[in-house]
């Protein structure tokens, strides 16, 4: 029988600098009341200039090794979900591997926008279930402040910077990751994208003048799909395994908008105490939201061994999906 992959450690890193809704009122035509009622966000973290996604990811991986009591030399593979790599190449995974001294690991990146962590997690889990590796690190990390236009009120109020990481190891005790349901729909690509800087529109004076190196989002369009798809995929994975919302201990959704989370919670028919929400403190940190929320929930003592946990996400691409797992660690 194939062995499941289990999460044997979870950690996160957030920069110290806080950008509040009131700070944003000084920068664009917005206000705290609009941001809070439309999104649930109060503040977000911003990484200092001169630091990049790999620095946040490396901090999270160092904490992960400390928590599990392992040397980075024991890591076999590092996968980083991100859409804000330090540079085109080498991959952010390569840079993290060097920064933490994981000399025996290989590494690569996964680009699936807000679904980056879940897509990377499914990828990492295959190396454990196949028996190829024993210790796989999966990171979700984004320095969104590097691609946000702080003159565009439609997007600048939404995003923040953070990193989260998990360690995957073979499960011995009927815990671990039960299943994934993952989807993409390229028809949605124009609703949420960073248009320039790639091979279609390499950087030129024209692309810079047009702000094509910043994130663009048709918020309404994305909202419509996110509400439906994230709720559908959350309910479907439970049904597939003959579970209901009653069986769930914790739902850890992507944190893009409190109203999108509320819609999924309603469809699942679960009470709010079964949902991890920290969007108010961090905004949308893209690939980092799920591991960041999971790490805080675990630290807060909201998870114990054998608890049923559900992840769900929706992001640019479009990309979306869910994962169901039995928590493997006792309370910290
Ligand atoms: O994580 C990746 C996936 N992304 C998402 O899931 C995000 C999905 N979309 C959303 O969360 C929401 O669409 C937003 C939060 C982005 C926007 O909320 P909305 O309720 O859809 O607002 P809207 O875009 O329909 O805008 C309503 C009004 C507009 O004014 P008019 O045309 O009604 O006069 C906007 O210009 O609010 C205005 N507006 C703002 N006002 C104050 C837009 N941004 C702001 C702002 N402050 N920051």
Overview of the structural elements:
- The protein is globular, with a radius of gyration of 19 Å.
- α3 packs across α4 (92-100) and α8 packs parallel to α9 (258-268).
- The longest helix has 22 residues, at 219-240.
- The chain has two domains: 5-174, Thiolase/Chalcone synthase (Peroxisomal Thiolase, Chain A, domain 1, 3-Layer(aba) Sandwich); 177-326, Thiolase/Chalcone synthase (Peroxisomal Thiolase, Chain A, domain 1, 3-Layer(aba) Sandwich).
- It has 332 residues and is an alpha/beta fold.
- 33% of the residues lie in helices and 23% in strands.
- α4 links the parallel β4 and β5.
- The chain starts with a strand and ends in a 6-residue tail after the last strand.
- The strands form four sheets. Strands 1-7-6-4-5 form a five-stranded mixed sheet, with helices on both faces. The protein has a four-stranded mixed sheet with strand order 8-13-12-11, sandwiched between helices.
- It contains eleven helices and 13 strands.
- The chain binds oxa(dethia)-CoA.
- Oxa(dethia)-CoA is lined by residues 30, 34, 38-39, 114, 153-154, 157, 219-220, 222-223, 226, 256-257, 260, 284, 314-316.
């Amino acid at each position: 029988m194939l062995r499941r992959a289990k999460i044997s450690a979870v950690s996160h890193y957030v920069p110290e600098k806080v950008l509040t809704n009131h700070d944003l009122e000084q920068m664009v035509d917005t206000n705290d009341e609009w941001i809070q009622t439309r999104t649930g966000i109060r503040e977000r973290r911003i990484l200092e200039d001169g630091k990049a996604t790999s620095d946040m990811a490396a901090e999270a991986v160092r904490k992960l090794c400390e928590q599990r009591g392992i040397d980075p030399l024991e890591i076999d593979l590092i996968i980083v979900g991100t859409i804000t790599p330090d540079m085109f190449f080498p991959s952010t995974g390569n840079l993290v591997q060097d920064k933490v001294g994981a000399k025996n690991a290989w590494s690569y990146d996964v680009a699936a926008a807000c679904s980056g962590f879940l897509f990377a997690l499914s990828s990492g889990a295959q190396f454990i279930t196949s028996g190829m590796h024993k210790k796989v690190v999966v990171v979700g990390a984004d320095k969104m402040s590097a691609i946000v236009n702080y003159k565009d009120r439609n997007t600048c109020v939404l995003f923040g910077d953070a990193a989260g990481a998990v360690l995957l190891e073979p499960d011995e005790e009927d815990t671990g990751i039960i299943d994934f349901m993952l989807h993409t729909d390229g028809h949605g690509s124009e609703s949420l994208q960073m248009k320039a800087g790639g091979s279609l529109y390499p950087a030129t004076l024209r692309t810079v003048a047009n702000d094509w190196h910043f994130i663009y989002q048709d918020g309404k369009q994305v909202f419509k799909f996110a509400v439906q798809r994230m709720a559908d995929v959350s309910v479907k994975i439970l049904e597939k395994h003959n579970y209901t919302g009653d069986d769930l201990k914790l739902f850890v959704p992507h944190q893009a908008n409190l109203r999108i989370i509320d819609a999924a919670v309603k469809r699942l028919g679960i009470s709010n105490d079964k949902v991890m929400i920290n969007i108010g403190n961090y905004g949308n940190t893209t690939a980092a939201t799920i591991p960041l929320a999971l790490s805080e929930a675990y630290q807060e003592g909201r998870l114990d061994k054998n608890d049923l946990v559900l992840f769900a996400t929706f992001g640019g691409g479009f990309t979306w999906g869910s994962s169901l797992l039995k928590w493997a660690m006792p309370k910290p």
